[in-house]
């Protein structure tokens, strides 16, 4: 008596990891390039208000970090809770150090 185990799409999704293919990586790469071009254009424009340029650069930097973490470092996938927890903790410690240094200098 033989039992044939045919693998269906449901089994692959339920029990294994389905390969995403290069499509999402290409989209993330193009999005990273577009963010870089926007930041470069904001600085190269020259006549733009300095405060506006700094805000644009900060927004583009945050978006770039999210794209890098999500797609290139695979933080969007399951099983990455501990690395994400340590990254959030590191950002909290760094933010606290910056706030303390600024208050120490200006107090």
From TrEMBL:
Its main location: membrane. The chain crosses the membrane at residues 26-46, 52-72, 84-106. It is a multi-pass membrane protein. InterPro entries: Cyt_c_oxidase_su4_prok, Cytochrome_c_oxidase_bac_sub4. Keywords: Cell membrane, Membrane, Transmembrane, Transmembrane helix. It is found in: Cell membrane. It comes from the Bacteria. Belongs to the cytochrome c oxidase bacterial subunit 4 family. This is Cytochrome c oxidase subunit 4.
